[in-house]
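Appendix B, record 7
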Amino acid sequence: MAHATSQGSNLLHGLRKSDKFTKGWGAQLPVAYKKFWDEWRNQQPAAVHYVPKDGMFQRDDLSGLVTPIQNVPLPLIDPPEAHQGIWGGEAIIKGFQKRNQYKRRVPHFWVPVLRRSVVHSQVLNQYMAVTVTDRTLDLIHDNHGFDHYLLKTPACDLRSMLAIKLKKKILVDLLSGCPKHSGNSEKQKTILKEFACYMSQYTPEEIDWYGLTYNEAIAKIKIEVESKNDKRPHKVIFRQKLIEQLKEAGIREAQGNSDEIRTIDDSETASSWLSKLSFKPKNW
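Structure tokens (predicted):
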């Protein structure tokens, strides 16, 4: 005999896999942060360590064998040092290398060539010494500047928290009108006009949530929820506001009233705890 289950309706369309945004504090995160998360974690990054092929099948010119095309991304390793520099989408590749024809293959790590270089941000009006690769410098030159490179490149291709944080800082400065160039109004207008095309892609809320890790976003939403949901009784809040107003007005009795109210509150809390801890002795 078949039994009905509470998941019967879901089984018809397949079970939905739970993720970070379906339960707990993650369910309260706004859509603005989920947009950044999709750009950072779910979007397919551009191919850096291999050349993708077009089409579905390929044919060998010599043997004539037809094989399907499989553009499988290489598994990449992002060490902590990668988030302290800007590697231009490069990472460490772990694989095997056969160094001798008559010996077994051995594990090998391919590490990008790193160098220390100085980059300049027009929006921030600042020179920065960062660790980069040759590909990073080429991308900066191809995009005609460091700011254009960061603003054009999605978070999944930056692959560096330093680059993502700098991108957010640039967006915040553009939103506030480039305060670093407040002394030169003509240059300030020129920069705002040059980078206005990027600001149309974001809202102020999306810029506020952009570049936050999951733990930082959870901490931010907790602060916002706790500030909205003040569970103290209204009489306590009004009493505290009245005491603050009396103190500002310069009344001397305000300090004494606050001490009396504090002692009353302490006695009330003590009596409530004693009532909870009261018990009746058993008859032995």
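Remarks on this record: Confidence is low (pLDDT under 50) at residues 276-284. The longest helix spans residues 253-277.
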